[in-house]
Amino acid sequence: MKIAVIGGGAAGFFAAIHASVPGAEVTIFEKSPKLLSKVKVSGGGRCNVTHRPMEISKLVKNYPRGEKFLKRVFSRFKSEDTIQWFESRGVSLKVEADGRMFPVSDSSQSVIDALLIEAQKLNITIRKSCGVRSILSVSGGYQLDTDEGEYYVDKLIVATGGNPKLDNYRFLENLKHTISDPIPSLFTFNTPKESLRELMGLSVSDGIVKIEGTKMTYRGPVLVTHWGVSGPAVLKLSAFGAQWLKENSYVANVLINWNGAYGEEQYSSHIKSYMAAHPNRKLLSNTLFDVPARLWEHFCARSTIESGQLYGTLSKKQINKLVQNLFCYNLKVEGKTTFKEEFVTAGGIVLDEVNPESMESKYHPNLYFAGEVLNIDGITGGFNFQAAWSTGFLAGENASK
Ligand SMILES: Cc1cc2nc3c(=O)[nH]c(=O)nc-3n(C[C@H](O)[C@H](O)[C@H](O)COP(=O)(O)OP(=O)(O)OC[C@H]3O[C@@H](n4cnc5c(N)ncnc54)[C@H](O)[C@@H]3O)c2cc1C
User: Fold this and answer.
1) Is the pLDDT at 341 greater than 90, yes or no?
2) Which tens digit of pLDDT belongs to each residue from 133-181?
């Protein structure tokens, strides 16, 4: 039985490895001269392989697209299985405080080596610089038109990854699967006209970011950058808001609460009780709410508080302004910047057309999909690779049957 896997990335390798059973002749077709190139650069060169294990019902909440589909997928292969698979092949993983899991070596090369060694052991044929240009369904199998000529297979796994250009999905057009418009996800917000950028480098650990006029609100660390704002809460907002932001040309009013432990009323009453208890203390040298001193100074300046002003002299208007800055700092977002550490494509093969138990196409028998080519994407934290390993596992295992 001949099985072809298109795409030499994380999902393609995992699928090929799990499709390699006795009697199966597995070939990976990779259009570029490099294998596993995203794994190499992932997680800043450390590869955030997966996320700390959690219940499936919680795990799937980290996927803006694919939540329901992945419930079924993860019931077969989840983070625990990824950890076990890599550890049993000599790649020990460690978990960081935020739940991200990396190789103990802190090098993505360990992950690449494990996959390459396994592929070699299983005699998987790898054709580099051999892109697939089109696919034809022929008498139970598939004919691939590749850069090196035609190739016939009994079973086919498509694991070509995501790409924000629809043109890159054209090689699939004969299969008549629906492609949901591919658009970028996981990006940071540009705020070119905001003075906040002068505070670049500053961060808070528990902010809440919200797109005004929508219900999209996310909590977590927020970082001020040279271009605008970033950090896990912003990236999460970019992922869940990917479609909305695209439709609005990446222009939005974003509201930030700089300390999620406080609501509007709580900020106000805490300032008032501090005023009553310490009327002779200076505002600038007595920061409240655990916000960085430079940010506090910025809020004071925006609330017309003078440099030597004492808490006891705060006017009602100044208190209100201070609370507004703390609770709903209004940022005009105008554009986005690619987050260099990790970015993905939202969109791809529509999930209704794929069986979540097997990854098999509902239109064409013996055709399977795995990885980011599907309309599945996660937030940052190891969730995207987890989806690639899990869908790759299922596609490979089922194609080998
Ligand atoms: C900079 C960066 C860092 C990242 N870091 C992390 C991280 O730390 N943790 C995490 O969970 N996720 C991370 N991600 C996301 C993660 O890398 C992807 O979700 C994952 O690689 C998807 O795997 P894949 O195999 O589906 O696709 P890919 O890794 O994109 O592989 C697809 C392969 O198919 C090939 N291909 C495409 N079309 C054809 C064709 N027609 N013929 C032949 N070959 C073809 C491509 O050249 C490519 O090699 C990161 C992404 C980026 C860009």
Assistant:
1) no
2) 999 999 889 999 999 999 999 999 999 999 999 999 999 999 999 999 9
Nearest CA, atom 23, ligand 1: 10
Domains, the chain, ordered by start:
2-183+343-399 (3.50.50.60), 187-338 (no CATH)
d(CA 135, CA 158): 10
Interatomic CA distance for residues 42 and 48, integer angstroms? 7
Length of the chain in terms of residues written: 401
Q: Is the shortest distance between the CB of 11 and ligand 1 below 6 Å? A: yes
Atom of ligand 1 nearest to the CA of 377: 19
Whether residue 224 is predicted with pLDDT greater than 90 in this model: the reply is yes
Strands (E), 91-216: 93-95, 100-103, 125-127, 132-138, 141-146, 149-153, 155-158, 179-185, 187-190, 203-211
Secondary structure of residue 385 in the 3-state scheme: helix
CA distance linking residue 265 with residue 158, whole number of Å? 53
Tell whether pTM > 0.85.
yes
